Amino acid sequence: MRACPGNPMIRRVIDILASLCGLIVLAIPMLVIAVLIRRESDGPAIFTQRRAGHRGIPFTLLKYRTMRLDVDPYGHSPHSGGDPRLTTIGKWLREKSLDELPQLINIFNGTMTIVGPRPLYERQVETWTDEQKRRLEVKPGLTGYAQAYGRGSLTIEDKLEMDVFYVEHRSMWMDVKIIARTVLNVFKGEGDVYEKQYSRDQEYETGVDRET
Question: What is the model's pTM?
Fold first, then answer.
């Protein structure tokens, strides 16, 4: 039996209040980060990318840009901090998970939520089974079950299985535990931010966008 997901209206109110508070409190640090990105390399501070959202409806994901503009836009995701495509500030942002901060705007505008499966590429959805597509039954999140309990050490199959598990057992209490685990990971520097193996059948994914 699926766990009660909680009142959608309550979740939305929490999302609005939390994201608004976050944007207000972090406004100056976020502006400083944007300036540092622009000073180090040419190009915008914010990276935008189309992703599959709730029910598969596409939306524009916001992130801080962590790579140079002159790299292959379809290269694989970085697998270590030594990836030459990463800028100095970009490497630091990824390892501190601060590159995701602009997604507070996504949460505020309703295209994302605080906790949910991380938004993936539309073309990836086309390869999923009906069971795996169940991850689209909820809004994508700033953090999620797979990110809090494995992240880069997991394959895409592992992540999809954990995402579906989250959808089936979703509750406010589960969200609180995921948020707490995520915060702990960030402050303790735990959780591998670099993908070690894309899938169980292939070491790296080919043909993906440079910012993942």
Answer: 0.88
